Amino acid sequence: MSVLSEHWNDILSVAVNTPLEEPMKAEGFLRSWNSAAENMHMIVKGLEICKPVNCIELGTFEGIGLVTIANTLKRILPSSFFLTIDAGFPFDINTTPPTFFDWEKDEHWKGWGDVLSARNERVSRGYGSCKVVYKEGLARDILPIELPKMEWWDFCFHDTVHVYERIMEEWPTLKAYSKIGSLIVFDDVKADSEIKNHFEEKEPDWYMKYTETGHEQLWAERVR
Ligand SMILES: C[S@@+](CC[C@H](N)C(=O)[O-])C[C@H]1O[C@@H](n2cnc3c(N)ncnc32)[C@H](O)[C@@H]1O
Q1: With contact defined as beta carbons under 8 Å apart, do 127 and 116 qualify?
Q2: Atom 11 of ligand 1 has which residue's CA nearest to it?
Q3: What would be the CATH architecture of the domain defined by 3-222?
Q4: Torsion sign across C-alpha atoms 170, 216, 22, 156
Q5: Sequential DSSP letters for 43-104
Q6: Domain limits of the chain?
Q7: Is the pLDDT score of 190 beyond 80?
Q8: Which residues, in sequence order, are bridge partners of residue 201?
């Protein structure tokens, strides 16, 4: 029996909108780029159940997910590794290669400086038995370099751009380094989205659950 099928109700039961300890620093609309508290509580519960030692976060942003995950791993495991990746700066996802915005001059991106300083501090804070490594760049470029060093991953929080074509630039590499029991959580997934359809129709080795709680998430566990 898979962890997800056995424990999904336990994971859902903690999805309450109580604030996380870490204060948000991002201003204005950037605040909504942070994960929903309900979903972070679910992730903490999922980590407590699965006890993954090799973890990944795609999309660090200001580092609230990073702190929550790293502190949980530190609390529950004598030793763990946690790779968190971010493009670093806001960019236009529709151009190839991506065009980075001049956030310092662009009023629209007011607040990105706070994101940077918060992220830098949270990445370098130190998490005891959980070794945190932050890599800057596009996930599709960083994963093929870092995953061979990790050899496998058993938990991944996928929270970059929530666009199917962009996710598919990363998913084949992630899948290649998964193992039975690997658990991935995709954030911001709509009920009729292509990524949900993809898992339902094309990933028979992955058992999935979907929730409209918080930001709406797809959880998938490799079962064979
Ligand atoms: C929704 S925020 C992440 C929030 C964070 N996971 C948390 O829990 O608070 C998305 C982040 O993904 C980053 N990003 C977007 N596309 C990316 C890509 N292709 N590769 C790496 N990072 C990316 C953005 O720079 C942004 O900081």
Answers
A1: no
A2: 59
A3: 3-Layer(aba) Sandwich (3.40)
A4: negative
A5: HHHHHHHH--SEEEEE--TTSHHHHHHHHHHHHH-SSEEEEEEE-SS-EETTSSSPEEP-TT
A6: 3-222
A7: yes
A8: none
pLDDT above 90 for 94: no
Q: How far is the CA of 65 from the centre of ligand 1 (A)?
A: 11
Give the pLDDT confidence of 166-186 residue by residue, as tens digits.
Answer: 999 999 999 999 999 999 999
Measured in residues, the chain has a length of: 224
User: Cα–Cα–Cα angle for 121, 38, 223, nearest 5°?
Assistant: 95
Question: What is the distance between the alpha carbons of residues 188 and 95, in angstroms, rounded to a whole number?
Answer: 22
For ligand 1, pick from 57, 71, 86 the residue to mutate: most ligand atoms within 8 Å of CB: 86
Compute the distance from residue 138 Cα to the ligand 1 centre, in Å.
Answer: 9
Q: What is the largest CA-CA distance in the chain?
A: 53
Q: What is the Cα–Cα distance from 117 to 16, expressed in whole angstroms?
A: 29
| Cβ pair 74, 65 in contact under 8 A | no
